[in-house]
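Standup notes
- DV: blocked on the single-chain target, sequence here:
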Amino acid sequence: MPRAPNIHMPELRRATRFPVDFATIGETQKHGEFAVKLSNISARGCQIVHETKLNKGDRVVVRLPVAGRIEAFLVWSHSGRSGFEFERVIREPDFVAMLDKMEASEK
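- DV (later): unblocked, structure below
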């Protein structure tokens, strides 16, 4: 049987990440609402610090300024830090406005 051609797909997790220190709320069906702190974010995902036990593939709704509630799935987790990929890409104007609000809340 012939094999499909080797199509190179760009690595989506290599999107530019911006360091942040933003406290917000995460929510899962199993755990309900819980506190999280975003340590970096891109238009395609984020890294959070949390105390709730999560497993690879878990879906979490994260509350973000401007972008609102966005569903994300857990890609990796280690020692209370987890990397998530968003279900949808945050559009550039919304992403820039969101970063401005996050930066303002850090002050």
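- Follow-up: The CA atoms of residues 61 and 70 lie 5 Å apart.
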